[in-house]
């Protein structure tokens, strides 16, 4: 299976499984981590064929990953979801990659694959790439969260706030809006708001006050 469906599957496990932001990120990492053994591709097809599905697609890295995530998050949920996230990659690759999985590498070179497995060139793998985007969209509809949350929760929520029904009136122009200044908490429309580098929404007055305070705090030349 290609990278996009793997990542979407990890994201789905993290969100539907009720993981917090940290655990959701680990679920995505776990779902794509086995493909670390694709790195030898930069050294040529022969090296790639020798190492692919070895040091990434094995039960030892799986156990190490689950143990590390459980140690970092210290919850039963983190153990279960990290186990499922990493395992989802091995399970889908056993059916949808066409490459043997060397699950007990480096102690064994015996390959494992489902009897009726298909290769990456199979139409279903192309379909799953497009389906992965649909899954992320559906999760966004039901859980009000997108993968942007992994990098910036504020940006993710700002995105969703623009889609919500506008039930407030802007304190400056009276236009319908659904934003509030993070400093004075007055309703503010995006036309009269400033979005800072930290993804904070400020009204005009609060932005000016902040700039004045920063100017006073700046040492003279």
Question: Which characteristics define this entry?
Answer:
mainly alpha; 2 domains; two-stranded antiparallel sheet
Question: Mind explaining what this structure looks like?
Answer:
This protein has 221 residues and is mainly alpha-helical. The protein folds into two domains: 3-147, no CATH class; 164-217, Herpes Virus-1. Helices cover 51% and strands 6% of the residues. The strands form three sheets. Strands 1-2 form a two-stranded antiparallel ribbon. β3 and β4 form a beta hairpin. α1 packs antiparallel against α5, α2 (21-32) packs parallel to α5 (76-96) and α4 runs antiparallel to α5 (76-96). The longest helix has 21 residues, at 76-96. The model has no long low-confidence stretch (mean pLDDT 90).
Strand order of the largest sheet: 1-2
Number of domains: 2
Helix/strand class? mainly alpha
Q: What does the radius of gyration come to?
A: 23 Å
Concise overview:
With 221 residues, this protein is mainly alpha-helical. The chain has helices at residues 3-16, 21-32, 45-51, 59-73, 76-96, 123-143, 153-161, 204-217, and strands at residues 168-169, 176-177, 179-180, 187-188, 193-195, 201-203.
List the helices and strands and how they pair.
Layout: H1 3-16, H2 21-32, H3 45-51, H4 59-73, H5 76-96, H6 123-143, H7 153-161, E1 168-169, E2 176-177, E3 179-180, E4 187-188, E5 193-195, E6 201-203, H8 204-217
Antiparallel strand pairs: 1-2, 3-4, 5-6
């Amino acid at each position: 299976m290609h990278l996009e469906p793997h990542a979407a599957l990890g994201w789905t496990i993290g969100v539907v499984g009720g993981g917090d932001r940290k655990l959701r990120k680990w679920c995505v990492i776990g779902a794509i981590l086995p493909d670390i053994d694709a790195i030898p591709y930069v050294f040529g097809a022969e090296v790639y064929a020798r190492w692919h599905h070895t040091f990434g697609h094995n039960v030892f890295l799986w156990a190490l990953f689950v143990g590390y995530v459980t140690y970092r998050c210290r919850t039963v949920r983190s153990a279960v979801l990290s186990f499922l996230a990493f395992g989802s990659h091995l399970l889908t690759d056993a059916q949808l990659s066409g490459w043997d999985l060397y699950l007990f590498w480096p102690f064994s070179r015996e390959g494992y694959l489902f009897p009726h497995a298909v290769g990456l060139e199979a139409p279903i793998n192309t379909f799953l790439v497009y389906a992965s985007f649909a899954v992320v969209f559906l999760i966004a509809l039901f859980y009000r969260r997108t993968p942007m949350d992994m990098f910036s929760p504020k940006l993710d929520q700002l995105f969703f706030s623009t889609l919500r029904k506008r039930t407030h009136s802007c304190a400056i122009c009276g236009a319908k809006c659904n934003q509030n200044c993070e400093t004075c908490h007055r309703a503010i429309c995006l036309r009269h708001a400033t979005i800072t580098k930290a993804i904070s929404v400020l009204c005009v007055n609060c932005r000016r006050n902040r700039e004045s305070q920063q100017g006073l705090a700046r040492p003279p030349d």
